[in-house]
Amino acid sequence: MFIYQKHNIKTAITPKVNFPVGRGRLFVRYLLLAVVVFCCMFSFLVFSNLATFSAGSVLKTPIRGLFDRGSLGGSSYSVPTGSGVAALNGVVANVSWADLQTTPGGPIVHPNQLDSALSAVASYNASHTNQLEVKLRIFAGIYAPNWAKTIDGWNPANANTCNNQGSPCGTLGPFWTTDYDNAYKTFMTELAAAYDNQPLLHDVTISQCMTTFAEPFMRDDTNLGAILYDTSSQPAYTGLPYSVQADENCLMDEIDDSTAFQQTNLSLSFNPFKPWTNATTQSNSPGESFTLSVMQHCRAVLGSQCTIENNSIRDSYVGQQDQSGNLYNDITNEGPDITFQTAAPNAVGSIVTTVQWAAQMGANAVELPSNYNTLTVSQLDSLSADLMNNPTNPSSPPPPTCTASPTINLTAPTSGATVSGSSVSLAASAAPAANCTLSKVVFSINNSAVATVTSAPYVATWDSTTISNGPQTLTATVTDLSGHTASKSIGITVSNNTQSSGGSSPGSGGTHGGDSSSSSPPVTVSGGGTIQAVPGTTTKVAGNITLAPSLVIPNSTITSSTSNQDEVIKVAYYLNSQLLGVETKTPFQYHLNTTNYVNGTYALKTVTYYASGKVTSSSQKLIITNPFSLKQFGLVALSNSLPIGLILVIVLGCGVLYYWVQYLAPAGRVALVVKAIISRIIDLFHRSSPPTDLPQSPDNYQTLVPPDNQQPGQIIKPE
User: Fold this and answer.
1) For residue 516, is pLDDT > 50?
2) Coil vs helix vs strand at 466
3) 558: pLDDT confidence band, cut at 50, 70 and 90?
4) What is the predicted pLDDT for the residue at 130?
5) CB-count exposure of residue 217 (10 Å: 0-12, 13-18, 19+)
6) How many CA atoms lie within 13 A of 7 on its CB side?
7) Angle between helix 667-688 and helix 6-13 axes, rounded to 10 deg
């Protein structure tokens, strides 16, 4: 009689598993360890905020020409006014360490005066032909945060000092110590992480070892010798005692501590070093010999990124190498890049003579005193040209001059087209001539401007219902930074008696990771670019970008109660229906770091609110295309709803199993468990995918008759 045994069939179909008993524990141990290591590594990749892989950082151009030196204080910044601003090449944002980093080792605090300066300059550049850059002057010393001043138990209350001119005054921390040095290095690292890729910021000063003025080599402060050497006033201080050697180390180390900046130039103000040798004696030694060695160290560590600076030039120095030695000769011999700051208005003398002398000494840029508006724009332009003609490091000829006009072509609507509706698409393609940079494109109807676009894509919308039906002339005019213009005009017909067909309706916006279509082909905007709210457009973006509304009425241009009814009061930005932010001040721009988002297509919506109560919105699409990075890898994992909790459960479960295998389970039991698991897996595959390689014949598949006590389909376990 045939005995029905299910396991015999299984054995015939698949080979029997023979798992070595002695190796069971070892197999499970390594398997679990591999799973735990994989989960941990994957979790690290998901959450790490490492920078993107790149072929290398590109150093920004050094500052050149004339700069407004600005002033320290306040949380907001305004671009200087006056006719002389038109001749400037940049401005200086003066910000204290205390305002930028309020906690030990903490992140940079936002918003701050640097943020305000960058925003104000971006707004200014959008509407002016002279494009300004930003230099950051950091104030440490008496402007350091209190947590840094109290490092190693130092009591800043007993370290009050003033500059030899009587102002400014404040308390000092132990700037010469290792712990203070480490704190400053962390600060510069955080600062670089926040601003190194900001395209408007071209220079940052090195200021760790300063006392009262942002000139780290200066030690001409009242009572400074007593502060540094009188240990009785610091009974709780446990750090390194002050010494001339420690001070010299500080001046060297502050350069090394700034290397986190890779794209932004770094400047250090040099003066003859005259340290205090005891509580009452300030020495002229080592003087300029040590200063020169620090210059050479700066160039050795930072290369062309190191800009040599001095903040004291005046007309009385003309014909001299320095008030006391050969400092300016040393600076000139070290070569570009070189920048100078003039003395205060009451000490500089003739601005023209001073700047001309600076240019002769090889300077690339000069920070002007506050009374530079007493000069004409023509005089300032001439001085700027003298500085711009000096080579930068590495030595190179002056930048070529823009001499030709740009070109422009209207791409929408087409010539002779009939348009209607309140949202007619206007588009133009423009290109600069050699050595030129475009400033703006203005769309006009019958010589009346209806839209201005300051960056590509040059697209806008126009309400055709605001003029009468009939033939009209549409003109697009492009202007470059040198003032050259070009125009293109076409004839169109406005007809608002029929259903609008010429306008472009706001797009609904894409969804993350999806595809999209739009009324205009995608245009690429790299980091630092500005994207205006233009309905129906698609823009490829990467890095840090600026979002801007279209046709915003600046607050400063509102001159009547009637116009004030149309004043923009705020602009809200949404990405995939999620609020990014609400801007309430001109120019109502929002800075977006696209590296915080997974590559893909997003719906950008801009909502503009007016004082009259009117609300307008614009929808367009952004295609984020950042290069691959570990950060992007992590974002992809999170955006696909990877259950991080599940990873933790797996890790915990593997840990428990590992503990059981290692310490609790008998060796034989482990082997049996592994054998059972593998057999079960094979059985599952057998059930879901019957073998197809066996011949379908009675020799292989007999008509099996189960015993009397077994129901059809019931499985008998192997013996």
Assistant:
1) no
2) helix
3) very low
4) 87
5) buried
6) 8
7) 80
Q: So what's the pLDDT on residue 139?
A: 95
Distance between CA atoms of 424 and 472, rounded to whole angstroms? Answer: 14
pLDDT band at 685 (very low <50, low <70, confident <90, very high): low
Q: Give the contacts of 89 (CB within 8 A, at least 6 positions apart).
A: 63, 64, 65, 66, 67, 130, 132, 133, 365, 384, 388
Structure tokens at 655: 């840990």
- Cα–Cα distance measured from residue 233 to residue 174, given in angstroms and rounded to the nearest whole number: 13
C-alpha 268/C-alpha 218 separation (Å) is: 12
Q: Residue 478's pLDDT band (boundaries 50, 70, 90)?
A: very high
H-type alpha helices, 532-666: 561-564, 630-639, 644-659
CA distance 69 to 78: 13
Pairing of strands 407-412, 424-431: antiparallel
The pLDDT, as a whole number, for residue 468 is 86
Phi, psi (degrees; rounded to nearest 5) at 443: -95, 135
- Containing 309, the helix (H) or strand (E) segment is strand 306-313
Picking from 265, 263, 102, 264, the residue whose alpha carbon sits closest to that of residue 187 is: 102
- Residue 505: both structure tokens together: 């309706």
Give all domains of the chain, ordered by start, each with its CATH number. Answer: 1-53+644-719 (no CATH), 65-388 (3.20.20), 407-494 (2.60.40.10), 523-627 (2.60.40.10)
Determine if the peptide bond prior to 471 is cis (ω within 30°). Answer: no
Q: Which of 304, 380, 341, 362 is nearest to 214 (CA)?
A: 341
Reported confidence tier of residue 13, pLDDT bands at 50, 70, 90:
very low
pLDDT, one tens digit per residue, over 344-356 is: 899 999 999 999 9
Distance CA 678, CA 665 (A): 18
List, in sequence order, the alpha helices (H) in 281-362: 287-302, 327-334, 345-348, 351-360
Dist CA 421 CA 436 (whole Å): 37
As a whole number, mean pLDDT of residues 416-436 equals: 89
Instruction: Supply the pTM of this predicted model.
Output: 0.52
The length of the chain is 719
Least confident of 147-161, 309-323, 619-633, 702-716: 702-716
Average pLDDT over the chain, rounded to whole? 77
Q: Residue ranges of the alpha helices (H) in 551-629? A: 561-564
Q: 716 is written with which tokens?
A: 């008998």
- The encoded tokens of residue 201 equal 């910021």
Three-state SS for 8?
helix
- Percent of the residues in the chain that have a pLDDT greater than 90, as a whole number: 38
Between CA 509 and CA 538 the distance in angstroms is 9
Tokens of 400: 């070529």
Q: Which amino acid is at 676?
A: A
Q: Are 19 and 679 in contact (CB under 8 A)?
A: no
Contact of 316 with 349, CB cutoff 8 Å: yes
> CB–CB of 523/428 below 8 Å?
no
Tokens of 689: 């995918």
Check if the beta carbon of residue 204 is closer than 8 Å to that of residue 266. yes
Q: Which residue has the tokens 């006719």?
A: 83
